[in-house]
Automatic annotation (TrEMBL):
Main location: other
NCBIfam families for the chain: ThlDiSintTplARhiz
Entry-linked CDD domains: TlpA_like_family (cd02966)
Organism of this sequence: Cohaesibacter marisflavi
SUPFAM superfamilies cross-referenced by the UniProt entry: Thioredoxin-like
One Pfam family matching this protein: Redoxin
Record bears the keyword Manganese: no
Protein name according to UniProt: Thiol-disulfide isomerase or thioredoxin
Length: 210
């Protein structure tokens, strides 16, 4: 039987795209080194590297850490929000859109991960890149029974080029694991079984190390 990653490899390849988009998203300035702004991240990356296997084997730690605490997006009511608002929490940040088939397929898994581990120390943050209002993603959440995820959106799609500029987004879905300081530990291009035992153990290891 084909694994989750093997089953969706053709879809993933077909959705890889290069996007020349305008829009600025604040990231830690070049003068601030990762060592200065992300003091704990290097050891965390070394600790989780052996745990990247099975359904999350496509996670990559190269190029990390980067301080992404300045990434901004919106709540469903249109108010501004950022990763800095999650300071103190480990975050699994997922960029998706309703027109992306693999994104739609993995959403129940993301909901399952939030149900299992979400709380004071961890949160799954799904940011829709659908244009205009969040009506379409809200309708999709309601249609498939998403119960544990908060809906965030970025109608200008500014987050995607910000991640792409760091080599951490090439298509959708794109996922980052962020520590409690807003520093990236790993990224993945394409869908994954985020509710799997392997994914949960990795998240637990990060939370316990902080």
């Amino acid at each position: 039987m084909l694994s989750f990653a093997q089953k969706f490899r053709p879809l993933r390849a077909g959705l890889i795209f290069l996007m020349a988009l305008s829009g600025a998203v604040a990231i830690a300035p070049p003068s601030v080194s990762a060592q200065e702004s992300c003091p704990a991240a290097k050891q965390q990356i070394e600790a989780i590297d052996p745990m990247i296997k099975g359904p999350i084997a496509a996670l990559q730690t190269s190029g990390h850490p980067v301080d992404f605490s300045g990434l901004v997006f919106k709540r469903e009511d249109g108010s501004a929000f950022s990763l800095a608002d999650f300071k103190g929490k480990t975050v699994l940040l997922n960029l998706w859109a309703t027109w992306c088939a693999p994104c739609r397929h993995e959403m129940p898994d993301l909901d399952g991960l939030q149900a299992a581990l979400g709380g004071d120390d961890f949160e799954v943050v799904t940011v829709s890149l659908d244009r205009k209002s969040p009506d379409k993603p809200r309708a999709f959440f309601d249609e498939i029974g998403i119960e544990h995820l908060t809906l965030y959106y970025d109608e200008k799609m500014a987050m995607f080029p910000a991640l792409r500029s760091k080599g951490m987004a090439f298509g959708m879905p794109s996922t980052l694991i962020i520590n409690k300081d807003g520093c990236s530990l790993a990224h993945m291009a394409g869908p994954a079984a985020w509710a799997s035992a392997e994914a949960q153990e990795l998240v637990k290891a990060i939370v316990e190390s902080e």
